[in-house]
Amino acid sequence: MKQLITLILIGFSQLLMAQDGYKLWLQYAEVDNPKVVEQYKKYNTKVQLDTTTATGTVIHNELNLALGGMLAQQAVLSSEQPTLVILKYSALPQNLKKEFDELSELPEDGYKILTMRSDKRDVIVISSASEKGLLYGTFAYLREMQLHKDLSKLDITDASKIKKRLLNHWDNLDRTIERGYAGFSIWDWHLLPNLIKEEYIDYARANASIGINGTVLNNVNASAYILQDDYLQKVKALADAFRPYGIQVYLTARFSAPIEIGGLKTADPLNTEVQKWWNEKAKEIYELIPDFGGFLVKANSEGQPGPNNYGRSHVDGANMLADAVAPYGGIVMWRAFVYSDEKPEDRAKQAYSEFVPFDGKFKDNVLVQVKNGAIDFQPREPFHPLFGAMPETPLMMEFQITQEYLGGMSHLVFLPKLFEETLQGDTYAKGTGSTVAKVVDGSLNQKELTGMAGVSNIGNARNWTGHPFAQANWYGFGRLAWNPELSAKTIAQEWLGQTFTPNPEFVKPMTSLLLDSREAVVNYMTPLGLHHIMAEGHHQGPGPWVKDLGREDWTSVYYHKADSLGIGFDRTSSGSDALAQYAPEIEKAYEKIETTPQKYLLWFHHVPWDYKLENGQTLWYNLARKYQDGVEEVEAMINTWKDMKPYVGDQVYEKTRMLLSIQLEEAQWWRDSCLLYFQQFSNKKMLEFIPQAKNNLDYYESIRDPYAPGIKPSWD
């Protein structure tokens, strides 16, 4: 009776959490199909599992949570005729072992799930060479159950293609989050190390379920204080909580820390006292946290200190830190997001020009972390040319999950579509098929150390991400970091089925909605290759008129270059020649307007207003048409969502409905303000399919929002 009451209470608690989005994609909702229930109970009656380890206990707890929610039963441990076996390969009974020999050829975190006959009974076996693999295999098994898959013929062999799969938190020590739209930081530094919140454990569970194995706890615009002893004790507490889930902690290291907290007069990486300081700091950290992952560094970028301050190179700085962590197996992730302090010819060229000469000169435990595009997380960018230009250096992909330039908390944008587009981009570095994904996973250039980072969209909002559908971007990043060849469609179907319901009447239309959502935002924000025309500073809303800032390349007019002749940034041989940084195949195709993909047209060309595109209509017509298409696509999203009400909880439905209405208003704002602004230069009439703008251009230019979310607040 007591056991039954416990299960009922667990179920009720889960129901409450399901309504507010806290449980993410780990809903473990009750299975209502009797045939499916019968099969699932058959295979989950008795579980053979080693619970003497921390990770084994975690697996058992997750099974109890899942089976309690889906089947109202517990994961009963038994080695006597088990129906579900979860054991390392070395511990498998001999009669099962022969079916799992291929595990020896997989990476450590690889696993196999197989339904087989053993002792005249059906049994499901999950096995791996490591406990981490067992954890990932268990989550994969539970994913199959959440999607109501047939368990009778399971035969899944899988392993990660990328070793370091990290979230990058841009969280500050005062709990503000740079470019965060879901509240304050979940890291309660003031109460650590003594208070380990339930959210920390659930954060680890969620990450482990999608294969994320590392987290950088603090902002790339770092405070040196994170490296002081009192804060390192707090970091240790988080590391201890995350360890059973296979997650390592990393820190962003402020390059000037030897000065700010070390009492030195310099941070010169070739100075022996500086080297000694970092060596001792690394030793201190690893004595506290033996599996500490290493350092992320933003140096000589946007005012951050770095080796260039002392006349030294990025190689000097990265290798100095790499030497400090190398004895402990640590790594350094050195960001390539840099641009010259001088007036730039073309900011898009800066990182390439600065880093390509260093190819092959970094230590073996250094990853150069490169943003997906050459500017800054735009709604659409061509892939960064560095991905085809540094064959001797491991390059780590940096995606932004948090939607800094894509509507922040307000807009439904399914980012795995953007990630997929980037990863499948062909660098031609070793001929056709040399995709960005193959550079990142190391297969193109035979790199052992590989990585992918995602700038986190997590905050202390009850549903973690603010917008209910922003959870899909966290999920999608993790799945692509595990396997960069996964399709956005598969990811969408998985997330929808687990988070809401696997019912095809819900999943099919919502998959289409998600897959179309990124193109909608591109259309109403930056169509035809426009980029960086957002409002100043906070990047919320349109600002194509932004000019006269501290740097020319922080302005919008620098990027769109609209004038009476046309619009767009000429990056061909007649302009900045940024195209020369790509492979000859791309350079040749994109050199001419007529052979440039339309989606990148204004990224690479300054195009006359009357130039006729593929459809025979002028550039001005097509620009206006794209802006209107974006608005209409949001309207279509709203109509689709109305039909989804029976499949989702009231709380999520209402919040999403209201957010979609905000998105529509803002899409109209983008359309009206941008077309009015560009009309000045085109000297063209507004086209008949564009509704009358609600306000004039002066009104739109006058809008100010000094307290827009996503930047460190001002208290004055």
Task: Describe, in plain words, how this protein is organized in 3D.
There is one protein chain. With 716 residues, the chain is an alpha/beta fold. It folds into 3 domains: 2-158, Chitobiase, domain 2; 164-493, TIM Barrel; 523-569 and 606-702, Alpha-Beta Complex (Alpha-d-glucuronidase, C-terminal Domain), CATH 3.90.1330.10. The protein contains 22 helices and 16 strands. It has helices at residues 2-20, 34-43, 54-71, 94-97, 131-146, 198-209, 229-242, 257-260, 272-288, 314-325, 350-355, 416-423, 436-440, 471-482, 488-499, 504-525, 557-560, 584-590, 601-604, 619-643, 650-682, 697-702, and strands at 46-49, 76-77, 84-88, 111-118, 121-128, 155-158, 164-168, 214-216, 248-252, 294-297, 331-335, 366-371, 395-400, 451-455, 566-567, 607-608. The protein has an 8-stranded parallel beta barrel. It has a 6-stranded mixed sheet with strand order 2-1-3-5-4-6. A two-stranded antiparallel sheet has the order 15-16. Helix 3 links the parallel strand 1 and strand 2.
